[in-house]
Write a structure and sequence with these properties.
Blueprint: H1 3-30, H2 32-36, H3 48-76, H4 82-103, H5 108-130
């Protein structure tokens, strides 16, 4: 299995962590009946931590499809190399670091970590385009 596929599988685990954390804190605020119900009622705004976890999950979901395409394409076309492997791990590390930074409300460093992840994605895409 390529490094890129390993990173992709671990990114799926990270997505599950995002989902479970966001739902856990939302359920803590709204209760088990909300969680197990149809969720049709208008609910009050989320408290800061639950809101940050939901936004962190949404942010991950915005770039994850790009990572999926890049990581799969690199494997399918046989372009895995040292640069793409480092970029893949860098992207995953940045995304994993982003979650606790957003969860705890760290402002500037969180954005810098997000930018590292974006740059790693751009390296992956650039490697594909360069062929």
């Amino acid at each position: 299995m390529t490094t890129e596929l390993t990173v992709l599988i671990l990114a799926c685990v990270l997505l599950l962590a995002h989902i479970m954390l966001a739902v856990h804190f939302k359920t803590r605020q709204y209760g088990k009946d909300w969680n197990m119900g149809a969720r049709d009622a208008v609910m009050p705004s989320l408290d800061p931590v639950a809101g940050r976890l939901e936004r962190a999950r949404d942010n991950f979901l915005e770039t994850f499809p790009i990572a999926i395409v890049a990581l799969l394409a690199l494997t399918l076309v046989g372009q895995s190399n040292a640069l793409t492997q480092v970029a893949a791990w860098t992207w995953l590390g940045a995304r994993a670091g982003y979650l606790p930074l957003y969860w705890t409300g760290v402002p500037v460093v969180r954005t810098l970590v997000w930018m590292v992840g974006l740059l790693a994605l751009l390296v992956l895409l650039g490697s594909l385009l360069a062929g």
